Amino acid sequence: MLDKLLILFFTITVISSHAQTCELTVFGKVLDKGTLKPIEFASIYLDELTTGVVSDLSGNFELKKLCEGEYHIVISHIGCETQNILFRLSSDTTCTFYVEHSSELINEVTIEDHIQESKSQEVEVLNARQINQQLSKSLGQTLEDISGVSTIKNGNGVSKPVVHGLYGNRLLILNNGIAQSGQQWGFDHAPEIDPLVANRITVVKGVGAVEFMGNSLGSVILVDPKKIEKEPHLHGKARYFFNSNGLGNGVNLELQQYNKWFGWKVNGSIKKTGDSNTPNYFLTNTGFEEYNFAAELEKQITTKWTANVYYSSFNTQIGILRGSQVGNLTDLQTAFEREEPFYTQDDFSYDIQNPRQEVNHHLLKASTKYLFSEQAWVELVYAKQLNYRKEFDVRRGGRGDKPSLSLDQESDFFEAKFHYYFKNEWHLKSGIQVNRVNNQNIPETGILPLIPNYLSNERGSFLIATKSFKKLKLELGARVEEEIRKVATISISVPREILNFENKYLNYMASAGMQYSFNDQFSMNYNVGLAARNPEVNELYSNGLHQGVSGIEEGDINLDSEQAIKNTLSFATKKKDKYFAELLLYHQYIQDYIYLQAQDEFRLTIRGAFPIFKYEQTDAQIYGLDFVTKYQINEKLLTELNYSFIRGNEIDNGIALINLPSNSILSSTSYQIPEVKSLKNVELQMIHKYVFEQRKIIEEQDFVAPPEGYYLLGFRVSAEKQLKGIRLEAHLGVENALNTEYRDYLNRQRYFADELDRNYTVGLVLKF
Amino acid sequence: MKTKLIYAFIAISLFACKEDDENEPVTPIIPNEEEVITTVKYTLTPVMGGTAKVFQFKDLDGDGGNAPVITTDSIDANVTYSGTLEFLNELETPADSITNEVLEEGDEHQVFFQVTAGDYIISYADVDKNGNPLGLSTTFESRTMGGSLTVILRHKPDKAATGVSGGDITNAGGETDIEVVFPINVR
After folding, report:
1. Average pLDDT rounded to a whole number, residues A506-526
2. Chain B positions in Cβ-Cβ contact with residue A606 (cut-off 8 Å)
3. Per residue in A673-707, pLDDT tens?
């Protein structure tokens, strides 16, 4: 994957032992992990002595006249995250640093296990440096630049990632290995994860996630914090960001240490943003604030046995554009026709009023891993999640203090996983999982709940086998999963009464993949997977007015599970230091795809007539391609071009599926200089993005036509500076530099308002 | 020893999963839907005396289920009526009057009257605490043509916007809490 400097391991070989003080030398070499070719211009810096060297054409470097003792060696390379390694020197030493070179985009090792594990499925990774470049962004927005990934939003504060056209409960998000459990069904419910806790975010553009429990029709997003480094000193980083649009500020602090007894890490963020502005007006009541915290303890009990406890807490309050709360269809029509939304204030404000959301999410994870041998190990995981969501609307009679929606969800998850490597290069991984979700409405709203109370028990088990040949890698996986969900809902008819239902589902999933390398330059990847998703409670039991979209939504208690078959085929070609290109083709057939179908009738209510939408099932397909290229023009100039194309329709009538991302092109040109005076890794980047108009949606499918295509121009400047004991990283940026006035099809706020105008961003990172 | 600890861990985890194993979802509590408006009643009383005319829109089960029931009446030509609007929540027993709530928050509400294919004049006969029209009380002057009357209650309209105090809804904004249509016959 792009620009990541992953130091796998380094070996120290003692070559002589005439330990005179301060006459020691370190002879080193920096090599590419994949090709074993030397890496030029890597910077090697000795923190204690505030001196450093740069690797030469052969990747070699020499550090001379060193005293005996401990040193922190900082290794950095253009576009990569800097690594800090503790080094004990007692004699002349030769060491080799294996780093992963930047132009490798695919086949990343995604999970840092005891023994490396690779996947045949398509994977893209955002590393710590890329996360640092967009410190102010939410999880969804952070991933937006990845080909094939977009976000579905409700204004700037609420965004959900979309991968290959699927989102919400069709896309699995793993927070530190645990499937995020919350109200994922809502269009305007963002995943409750702080990207600043993560060190790496992986998008698996997959065909089936047989390893994981939970709803997914293929793709998975993994948000992983960095493992606690085995370093006896206190290390950490402090980060700060500023956004001119919305006057957003945020700080994040991370500390970690591995002392004699155990390793620990803490991470905390505070973020606050006010009203954003478009080129012509403020988006009143679109500020948000976040308070996040995570802590981790790890204990190496014996050389074969480790235990780990992780806790994270995500707390947010998000303002929803005041002008987007409408009472009926007439209000909605009036809102469409207005230049600027109702209730737009002339002044900027940090205030958050109704409509707003208050969300708290807590995750506690305890895990332990026991190695029987280098070839076999077992891992046990228990996780508890608490999710509290309250949504407040503008209400009559002073009821604004009472939420209109108040949901508590509690989930308990247990997993046992077993890995085994056979001598003949087969790798087996299997596991069992149980999960229990208890979802309830808190009766404080005075409103008939949107979704019912339910208790769901899931059990699943899986088996994955991989085998590597010389040029070929094979992967086979299967999963069986059972869900029993008991539901208690309130009738829509009067007198109100409690109705009980039970849903039972049994699903089989399977996936197969192969990766074949023709030679150093060409490789191909093929995956096929069968996946299933059970209908969500809102799809089964909704019945009533969905105020936000001015429609009556009716669930259908007879919906079946969706069954999907997805195929991905990719071709990649690369030449080190020159070019990289990958073409990914995908097709997904979804049997019994659940969607909201507009009916030919209107229902008369006291607020006027509303259109009726029913959850129906049809066979559908989604297909497209992701094209990624990089070209190194010369040592300093790198260009990239990404193109995503996606289509989806119902099979029998060809009508397009709604809420699919528009096609888009992203292009960037970077000018990279390893060293300018005392600055390191200086990078200047110009980014062009063009999003095409969504032309396949027909008039009956939406209240207003999809917005026109748009072009955005952006710039980024990054540089690093090494001080004694501290490395400073600065990222400056301009988004929407041309102040383009535009709206995006996947932002529900497009009915009411434009997107944001020019935004200057500042990000500072201090590593120590 | 280690094996035992692993077993212990499994046991603890399983126990944690099972601890509240009553296996039934929490029974939902039927909310007290005090905010719902089920009924709109527009009463026209002749200023010079006579029988009151009543127009009513009633939807007892809220937004879903059964269709609302609209009752209408015939008015006399060229008569001045005094109009009174009432909003009720008949989900509650006894029925709860929402009219008072609207009256108390008069500055945050306004009723708009729209005449379609008819010939009669409705004017505001009440004001909120800021002296802006509210619309719970009106004066209704009939002519010879009925047509239909749309009654709209807006929450948090911009009463200062152009035309709003004259009863024009175009620039009012706010959320529509009520929008009902009554056919009006003239005798």
Report:
1. 91
2. 37-38, 40, 57, 59, 68, 178-180
3. 888 888 988 999 999 999 999 999 988 888 889 99
How far, in Å, CA of B105 to CA of A338, rounded? 27
Give one DSSP letter per residue of A400-444, joined into a string: GGS-SEEEEEEEEEEEEEEEEE-TTSEEEEEEEEEEEEEEEE-TT
Structural domain contains residue A14: yes
**The predicted structure's pLDDT at residue A325:** 85
Nearest to B61 among A370, A412, A492 (CB): A492
Chosen domain end from A39, A72, A102: A102
How far apart, in whole angstroms, are the C-alpha atoms of residue A741 and residue A756?
8
- Residues in A touching B2 (Cβ below 8 Å): 302, 305, 370
Residue B8 lies in a domain: no
Structure confidence at residue A471 (pLDDT): 85
Give the mutation candidate from B13, B19, B162 for the A interface (greatest A CB count, under 10 A): B13
Report how many domains make up chain A. Answer: 2
ipTM, 2 dp: 0.86
How far is the alpha carbon of B49 from chain A, nearest alpha carbon, in Å? 31
**Are the beta carbons of A446 and B180 separated by less than 8 Å?**
no
Best residue of A607, A613, A614, A752 to probe chain B, by most B CBs closer than 10 Å: A607
Written as one letter, the residue type at A78 is I
Contacts with A488 from chain B: Cβ below 8 Å: 24-28
CATH number at residue A94: 2.60.40.1120
Q: Coil, helix or strand for A649?
A: strand
Q: What is the pTM of this model?
A: 0.87
Q: What pLDDT does residue A17 have?
A: 40
Contact partners, residue A272, CB within 8 Å, separation at least 6:
A248, A249, A250, A287, A288, A289, A290, A350
Residue of A345, A396, A441 best to disrupt the B interface, most CBs of B under 10 A: A396
- pLDDT per residue as tens digits for the range A424-449: 778 899 999 999 999 999 999 988 89
B residues 54-83 lying closer than 8 A (beta carbon) to A = 57, 59-68
Tens-place pLDDT, residues A407-428: 999 999 999 999 998 877 788 9
Encode pLDDT of A462-507 as tens digits: 999 988 888 888 999 999 999 999 999 998 888 889 999 999 999 9
Set of chain B residues whose Cβ sits within 8 Å of the Cβ of A489? 28
With respect to residue B2, please indicate whether it lies within any of the assigned structural domains.
no
Q: What are phi and psi of A274, to 5 degrees?
A: -100, -160
Interface touch A439/B9, C-beta < 8 Å: no
Domain that holds residue A32: 1-102
Q: How many domains does chain B have?
A: 1
Would an 8 Å CB–CB cutoff place B117 in contact with chain A? Answer: no
Domain of residue B62: give its range: 36-186
Residues of chain B positioned with their CB less than 8 A from the CB of A455? 23-26
Query: Hey, of A606, A607, A614, which one would you mutate to test binding to chain B, going by the most B CBs within 10 A of its CB?
Result: A606
Q: Flag if A397 and B38 touch (Cβ within 8 Å).
A: no
Residue B48 lies in a domain: yes
**Interface contact B25-A445, CB threshold 8 A:** no
| A594-600, Cβ contacts within 8 angstroms, sequence gap of 24 or more | A594/A535, A594/A539, A594/A559, A594/A562, A595/A620, A595/A657, A595/A658, A596/A553, A596/A658, A598/A551, A598/A700, A598/A701
For A599, A646, A656, A702, the CA distances from A653, given in Å and listed in that order, are 16, 18, 9, 18
